[in-house]
Write a structure and sequence with these properties.
By secondary structure, this protein is an alpha+beta fold. It has one domain (5-121). Helix content is 35%, strand content 12%. It is built from four helices and four strands, in the order E-H-E-H-E-E-H-H. It has helices spanning 13-24, 39-47, 68-75, 94-112, and strands spanning 5-8, 32-35, 58-61, 64-67. The protein has a four-stranded mixed β-sheet, sandwiched between helices. Strand 3 (58-61) and strand 4 form a beta hairpin. It is globular.
């Protein structure tokens, strides 16, 4: 895989906002995106052998994957300045940030709502979203 891929919950309003934030702040278009419910997302989850119980954004980099807050924070290193500053949160130990991230994740539908259909990219962003094609 040549570019990092963000696998996200396509039904989640909060996740949609975070994807839009990443797109707006990734002027070099380094990040690609796939909804976890899409065929491409499901193929990537199988390819990387990601356990089904992971209810999180996932960042795929090379042969590795990151989940929970580690994924969310690592995405920031691909963003433009000043959004890139979010990456500094990586210094907070995982045993502190993971429970906070999981708490937000468990409550995301209640707090931010849920879509009835999976997110569709805007025409201008369509090339950033994986559809049927999976590259390694």
């Amino acid at each position: 895989m040549s570019q990092p891929i963000v696998v996200f919950d396509g039904f989640c309003n909060y996740c949609d906002r975070m994807v839009n934030f990443a797109i707006r702040n990734d002027s070099k278009a380094r990040l690609k995106f796939a909804a976890s419910q899409s065929e491409a997302g499901q193929q990537l989850i199988q390819q990387y052998k990601i356990p089904g119980e992971i209810d999180s954004v996932i960042l795929l980099e090379g042969d590795s994957y990151y989940k929970y807050s580690s994924a969310a924070i690592r995405i920031a290193k691909y963003l433009d300045w000043p959004a890139k500053l979010i990456y500094i949160l990586i210094i907070i130990p995982a045993f502190i940030r993971q429970p906070i991230y999981k708490w937000i994740s468990r409550n995301r539908y209640r707090w931010f709502g849920r879509r009835d259909t999976c997110r569709l990219p805007a025409a201008s962003d369509k090339e950033r979203f994986l559809d049927q094609e999976i590259t390694k």
